[in-house]
Amino acid sequence: MRKWTIFRQNPKHSGVDLSESVCCNGARRLVEWFRKLYRITRRLYPGFGTMLSAAAAERNKEPILTVLLENVSTGRHLRALEISSGTGQHVTHFAQALRNITWQPSEYDRQSLASIEAYRAHYQLSNVMPVIHLDASLPHQYWGGIQPESLDLVLNINMIHISPFACTEGLFKGAGAVLKPQGLLLTYGPYSVNGQVTPQSNIDFDYSLRQRNPEWGLRDISLLNSLAQRNGLYLEKMVDMPANNKCLLFRKESLV
Ligand SMILES: C[S@@+](CC[C@H](N)C(=O)[O-])C[C@H]1O[C@@H](n2cnc3c(N)ncnc32)[C@H](O)[C@@H]1O
């Protein structure tokens, strides 16, 4: 991952240079206090203030946005939760194009949480909420206060195959609870179809994932479909995406 900082670095204190605007002792002490806090925070959380960049996210953000624009209303206010927002590249990209949606990013990894906040600070988007810590394997009651049936969209990109299956189970169970009737769960990634992984590049990728962690690996769409059905969702659409990925669109059943 490539890294760059959103703050201009000052070699003396490696923080934000505010000295020009300091005009009295009280203000100077306050600035010193903030610099100290900033240094301590960077020591505790090395990613603080750093916008991480994932090449895959840079490549797939536009094709995924196209699917969103074709399947999500742009004419009314909606609420969306992104699970495993990663660097923050996706949520800030989508939020710029879909201003009618209030986006809630979330992450499990602490360094990624800081990166998402750095992207938020950089883009200053009023429709992106502060990131919440969210472990997809936990019940939705632990999802940062997200209320049942409060969301129109749950988005999950490239997590299902790079996390233990408990995360996938939690994702579908949680989405079934927090989505409004007719709400949408959109997942993106590589999948196997009827037990077959194709083409060879996905077979190799699946193998390398399982070598890294035996709990990881491509999941079968029929398995995801049965998980969806158990949680009040159904597979409405599959969209083929570049590089042998797919978008899966699961719709929450209405009550009537
Ligand atoms: C390959 S990255 C994808 C990140 C981002 N969605 C993207 O496409 O750039 C996999 C993500 O799964 C997340 N993840 C792993 N375990 C998780 C869990 N228990 N709950 C939520 N997310 C998890 C990681 O933190 C990481 O952000």
From TrEMBL:
Gene3D superfamilies the record matches: Vaccinia Virus protein VP39
Entry coiled-coil feature ranges: none
Domain of life: Eukaryota
InterPro entries membership: DUF938, SAM-dependent_MTases_sf
Pfam hit, one: DUF938
Recorded family membership: Belongs to the UPF0585 family.
Name of the protein described by the UniProt record: Methyltransferase-like 26
Source organism of the structure: Acanthochromis polyacanthus (spiny chromis)
